[in-house]
Design a protein that fits this description.
By secondary structure, the chain is mainly beta. It has one domain (about 1-50). The protein has strands spanning about 1-5, 10-15, 20-30, 35-40, 45-50. The radius of gyration is 13 Å and the shape is elongated. About 0% of the residues are buried.
């Protein structure tokens, strides 16, 4: 697991009993919330999740 200096997870790696590797990478906004998640299985992109967060003052 890769973690930023602020404690945010930027990458998670999962290994399963079939010897496949699942990796999830994250991108964050200026407030530290993840806004994009990309999942890979054995290096092949599986899905992308994009979040739009609206902040109120």
């Amino acid at each position: 697991m890769n973690i930023t200096t602020m404690g945010s997870v930027i990458e998670e790696i999962y290994l399963n009993d079939r010897d496949s590797k699942r990796t999830i990478e994250y991108e964050f906004d200026e407030r530290g919330n993840w806004i994009k998640s990309i999942a890979y299985v054995d290096g092949e992109q599986q899905n992308i999740i994009v979040r739009e967060i609206e902040y109120f003052e």
